[in-house]
Amino acid sequence: MKLHNKKIIQLVSDDFEDLELWYPVLRLREEGASVVIAGEKSNVTYIGKYGVPIESDVSFHDLDPNDYDAILVPGGWSPDKLRRYDDILSLIRVMNDQQKPIGQICHAGWVLISAKILQGKKVTSTPGIKDDMINAGATWVNEPVVVDGNLISSRRPPDLPDYMREFIKVLS
């Protein structure tokens, strides 16, 4: 197992894109990683856009970035909620400064925009937030997955295999 000693944060709030959250969690666990589900509150069930639930392990207010190797931001409408929390934006900035892998797919780019870490980076996302990514100083490309240093970005559910293959490679 490639990732048996790795600990990853998976952020969550209601209205996450079900596949964009669950597929990475399952793939990383298959590789032996410990994936911690972090929501506004611990031990709360959050519901995806299509009704798939997930329970948080910890509150993102209690996360210490030094205890983790990487972070994932799901897509869906969840990122629009997540980016309103200073704790999350601070967490993203610290992990970025430490060059830890940050995975974002679909609308998850909104969180990175609000954390102000995209200036000069090459990224992708759902085309729906292309202008937002460009206005944040990023170079946006229409590709299944883009790796720029520690940032791994992807567009949408059909790109999940490419996204996770690259995320796992960077994390390894």
Could you walk me through the main structural features you see in this protein, from its secondary elements to its overall organization?
This protein is an alpha/beta fold and 172 residues long. It has a single domain (7-171), classed as Class I glutamine amidotransferase (GATase) domain (Rossmann fold), CATH 3.40.50. 31% of the residues lie in helices and 23% in strands. It has six helices and eleven strands. It has helices spanning 18-30, 78-82, 86-97, 109-114, 130-135, 160-171, and strands spanning 7-11, 34-39, 45-47, 53-55, 58-59, 70-73, 102-105, 122-123, 139-140, 145-148, 151-154. Strands 5-2-1-6-7-11-10 form a seven-stranded mixed sheet. Strands 3-4 form a two-stranded antiparallel sheet. A two-stranded parallel ribbon has the order 8-9. Helix 1 links the parallel strand 1 and strand 2 (34-39). It is globular, with a radius of gyration of 14 Å. It starts with 6 loop residues before the first strand and ends with a helix. The mean pLDDT is 97.
Topology:
Blueprint: E1 7-11, H1 18-30, E2 34-39, E3 45-47, E4 53-55, E5 58-59, E6 70-73, H2 78-82, H3 86-97, E7 102-105, H4 109-114, E8 122-123, H5 130-135, E9 139-140, E10 145-148, E11 151-154, H6 160-171
Give the biggest sheet. Answer: 7 strands, mixed
> What pattern of helices and strands is seen along the backbone?
EHEEEEEHHEHEHEEEH
Mean pLDDT: 97
Could you say what the CATH architecture is? 3-Layer(aba) Sandwich
Distance between the termini: 10 Å
